[in-house]
Amino acid sequence: MIYRIRHLTEYEYQHPVSLCYNLAHLQPRNTSYQSCLSSKLQINPMPAYSRKRKDYFGNNILHFSIEEPHKKLSVEITSDIRIDEGRASPELNLDLGSTCAQALEALRQNQTKPTLEAREFVLDSPMVKVMDALRDYAAPSFAADRPLLSAARDLTHRIFTDFTYDPAFTTVATPLSDVLEHRRGVCQDFAHLAIGCLRALGYPARYVSGYLETLPPPGQVKLVGSDASHAWFSLYSPDEGWFEFDPTNDNMPAEQHITTAWGRDYSDVAPLRGVLFDGGKPQPPRVAVDVQRLET
Amino acid sequence: MSFSQQQQSDQGPALVYPRPAGLKDEVYAPDGSMRSHWEYLLDSLNVLGSDALSERQRKAERILRDDGATYTLSSASLASHTWGLDPIPLLIGSEEWSQIETGLSERAELLDLLLKDIYGPRELLRSGILPAELLYSHSGFLRPCQDIKLRGDNQLILHSADMIRGADGNMVIIGDRTQTPSGAGYALENRTVMRRVFPSLFRDSHVHRLSLFFTTLRHTLTRLAPPANLSGGELPSIVILTPGAYSETYFEHTYLANYLGYPLVQGGDLTVRNGYVWMKSLDGLTRVDVILRRVDDNYCDPVELKSDSRLGVPGLLEVVRSGRVVVANPMGSSVLENTALMKYMPQISQFFLGHELQLASVTTYWCGESDDLAHVVANIDKLVIKRCARRAGEFSVFGCDLSASERLQLIERIRLNPLHYTAQEYVAPSSAPSWNKGTLQSRPSVLRSFSVAGEGSYSVMSGGMTRVGVEQDSRLISNQIGSLSKDTWVLASEPEKQLTLQAGPGGESLSQIHQYTNLPSRMVENLFWMGRYSERADAAIRVLRTVFVQLNSAVILPKGADRLLLRAVSEVTLTLPGFTKDNLDLLRKPEPELLSVISDAQRVGSVKASLIAMLNCAEEVKELLSADIQRIINDIRDELNGLEDAVTKGMASAPEETLDPLISALLALSGLYQDSMFRGLGWRFLQIGRRLEKAQQIASLLRHLLVPVNVDPSEPLALESALLSTEALNTYRRRFRAETNIISGLGLLLIDRSNPRSLIYQLDKLFKDLSELPHRSKGPELPHTQRLVLEVSAAVRLADMRALATVDEKLQSRVQLDKLLQQVQQRLNETAIAVSEDFFDHTGGPQQLVNTGWNGEL
After folding, report:
1. Min CA distance, A128 vs chain B (Å)?
2. Which conformational region is residue B206 in: left (phi greater than 0), alpha (psi within -120 to 50 degrees), or beta?
């Protein structure tokens, strides 16, 4: 499957911004099942400085700064991405593999590089802090003798069932405790919630940001800019690797999920962050995303 | 020896240091004998006697105060504490020191390797030597710093270690400081003071000098500069980055800036453009190549690190990453301050060096290991509990000091977050003699060492900063709770040849005030405001004093006079509404309002508020002020602390006299501005600030005393008060003898160029100072600022004094005088704004593109 993804972010300021320094996690990374065929970035006004590199987690990161006064900033990226088949086949039997108890034991004992490094993702991170309430919510899915992946799939399903998708309820800054209490949120909150649940029980979990191809209702034409960026989570099972789950859609990401970046939580992979001087009261940006299928 | 036994009786009782019972002691060996390297010092002190030693200590305190040596304990500007120095140095013999020195140098090397590994391959994790959680859970592990490398062999440029004497008599390390190690400047100041207070004792003791450490530091910083930044032969530009005047160790930052000769900058003085770091200076932007920082890791760059930090430079880390600026110590180095690492030092040392460290670390337990946690819980009363990541204002907890319930609470806190806690065996520090209330008493002491990366190896300062406990059994020893410090004398077997940073006979003394060719704009702005506030305070004091004199004079005042005078106080100081509301109660009993105009620090325009504002500006430009100015500034600070009491007491008898000490201090200050400051651009801005403010104040005073004519115009009171306020009354009387005459009075106050307190005198000087500034406009015209001043000075000079003196009977006012003075005030305001727009920095504070509520801190 090949997709073309267009992601446009536009800021308009009350007063001219004299200087801004930004970090962008926008160019999708290569993974074992996905490759970025091409990527084109357009920033307006033209940056005085820009440089691409790989960040700590191996994501593509772009630094750029604009050093002339501007009242508008637009960042547009268009990437062509190939997703391999068989990323998560429906036949994958979640009832095989390590049990929860075995996985926890292996995390303690296993001295392999991937397992040692995965232990970073058990710890608290800036936006996900372990609480008793998370542990209590997660516990019923994770019986000691249940296969870990089956338990995680169950947690995904429970979040999908128990929580209401409600973009009006949360912002980027809504704390996890509010999401849990009110049982509302968006994909980012549900990913954080699941990550918090897993970490509370001692399992490594990371945050994955990306896109999801959405299909219009039968008989209707797909609207331009109607897609959105998306987020889900990934769980590490020693000796088995990382497995992805999408609690917003109650499934395991397959060919319609395009990965941009991963980290401990949203704060590691925010699509665009930065510091600016002047500009007046901050206004929310206008964001438009299109995920277009080029080839099946 | 410079003193003899016979003098003893004149010098007070003999000084003996008794052997403390049952304690490890620096002076006495376990068998009770005195260690030989202490004999000379203790004999000398004995001969000197306690009275003489008290006198030397007072001298030391005076020098410290005059140098402005402070350790700021709170952010209130009047609360600076003079650095406390115990006049008895800590002595270390040369043989022992050479072992310590080797041990410290080895430790710095190991930490350097560790730092490279943590932000590089993380072999220690992969080979199972360090638990993954120990590193990953520490807030000092900054993921954006992965793979950042400084040029040269070493990543860790500066290292400090705190050490005490362990049970076996050997030094043992209890903590490392690796992000912005502080104290080297205080050690230098301690040494400077000790050399002045005990010149012969110091000379005859053959003490190792400290200067080599600073020379190496300078060479290292110069060597670190990115070669691609520099064109052939160009010297790198090096700055010291400080969090600012509210930092507890700000004195040290200014001291080091002066000693090393580098500009002291704050985050706002630097900006990232075009992929380089620049300093905002009067000449525009000048490139910076190396930054010696005193800002903590996480605060250095709000783009990639703590996003709400206002102390850093947005974009700095990316410039570091691209190699176009070097920051020392590198950002991310606080990860080495993780106390849990001390537990693993033997294994880390085996891994990298193949042997154990010569200097041992104190036995440490990390609660992230379940066995250690169990041990800590069971033995908490014998342990010192520390967080893995140090937090400001948080101290080590001594289990033995806690009640049973406090212990349980602490254990509970540890169990909730075991990864974040360590515990260390409590080792009582050895004691050393300390000067206390006229006797030598034993006090526990901790030594802080300083190492700097040199070419090939680390170079250790021969000495350090010793801190002593407040009481004999003090466990916690920290400057934050008022512990004293000591100079540390490493004794050489023979005299060393002198080696100092600056040429000349000054030894380790503070260098001449260093004049930067390039001042950060912020400093210039502070000098400008320092000038304005000192004149504003001066004008307020003078008008108050005049009013007190008139109100208390034996002569009965003409009707309406008190109202005129009191209104002038409110108008001139701008403490409105004050007396301008014609509130009869207030006019009948003016003392409380006058007291408030003097000493209410919260009231803008009061004497105290203006002087505090001036002190704050002075603090920002501390390194440009001479020692004499610093002394007057200290006097003003002391005076302000007692101001309210003094005025309240004086109010009944002679309130005008209570303000005299402040007038004298301000006069001294204005003399020193003339005589003890280098005539650089900074000085020019100070003068511009003073002239502008003074001219404004004269205009305002005359406008409020001489324009309204609600008193019989033939009464001399208003003119006399104006003359008195401007110190011109005597001149006037000498010159004109006869009755006061408003026309000749106005002449003296407005256009007499020989009167330094006339308006025209100030305007002329202002014009001249402005014309010395670098040109900002391109064309041949006079710059805007000068045109404004020229316009008013012409108007004043051309004015007809007779016309100005004419009273409009209907309005009961001197209308023409009012018009002229109003024009002067308005144009001067415009001038101030134009100066600010042309020369000062106007970037607002940074804000985040997306406010996420988290600030980048775990």
Report:
1. 10
2. left
Alpha carbon distance B39, A34 (integer Å): 77
Provide the token pair at B181.
């190690």
* Cα Rg of chain B (Å, integer): 32
Any long-range contacts for B815-820 (C-beta under 8 Å, 24+ apart)?
B817/B702, B817/B703, B817/B706, B817/B707, B817/B746, B818/B703, B818/B707, B820/B795, B820/B796
In the block, residue with structure tokens 């995920």: A291
Residue of B nearest to A18 (CA): B843
- Across the range B370-391, mean pLDDT stands at 94
Q: Using alpha carbons only, what angle is made at residue A19 by residues A14 and A22, rounded to the nearest 5 degrees?
A: 100
Name the phi and psi angles at A276, rounded to 5.
-130, 160
Say whether the ipTM exceeds 0.90.
Answer: yes
User: pLDDT category, B329, cuts 50, 70, 90?
Assistant: very high
pLDDT of B478-536, one tens digit each? 776 667 899 999 998 765 555 444 433 333 333 333 334 578 888 889 999 999 999 99
B-chain residues within 8 Å CB-CB of A51? 318, 322
**Gap between the Cα atoms of B362 and A267, Å rounded:** 37
Residue contact B844–A268, C-beta within 8 A: no
Cβ atoms of B558 and B725 within 8 Å: the answer is no
* Residue in chain B nearest A129 by alpha carbon: B858
Mean model confidence pLDDT for chain A: 92
Q: Which residue of chain B has the CA closest to A110?
A: B128
Which amino acid appears at position A56 of this protein? Y
Chain B residues in contact with A19 by the CB 8 A cut-off are 271, 314, 843
pTM metric for this prediction? 0.86
- What is the secondary structure of A270-285 as a DSSP string? -SEEEEEEE-SS--PP
Per-residue buried b or exposed e for A168-182, using 16+ beta carbons within 10 Å of the residue's own CB:
ebbebebebeebbee
Per CB-CB distance under 8 Å, the chain B contacts of A23 are: 303-304
- Distance, CA of B793 to CA of B719 (rounded, Å): 22
- With beta carbons under 8 A apart, name residues in chain A contacting B847: 275-277, 279, 282
Q: Which residues of A touch B132 (CB under 8 A)?
A: 116-117, 119-120
How far is residue B53's CA from residue B201's CA, in Å, rounded to a whole number? 12
What pLDDT is stored for residue B507 in this prediction? 33
Interface contact flag, A172 B852, Cβ < 8 Å: yes
Mark yes or no for CB contact A123/B136 under 8 Å. Answer: yes
Burial of B728 (0-12, 13-18, 19+ CB in 10 A): buried
Mean pLDDT of all residues in chain B? 88
Whole-number Å distance between alpha carbons of B644 and B661: 14
Least confident stretch, B304-318, B628-642, B799-813: B628-642
**Which residues are CB-neighbours of B202 under 8 A, at least 6 positions away?**
B194, B195
pLDDT of residue B503: 38
Q: 3-state SS of B137-163?
A: CCCCCCHHHCCCCCCCCCCCCEEEEEE
- DSSP state string for B307-341: TT-SSS-TTHHHHHHTTSSEEESPTTGGGGG-TTH
Q: The tokens 């040269």 sit on which residue?
A: B152
CB contact under 8 A, B307 and A273: yes
Of A18, A53, A172, the CB nearest to B850: A172
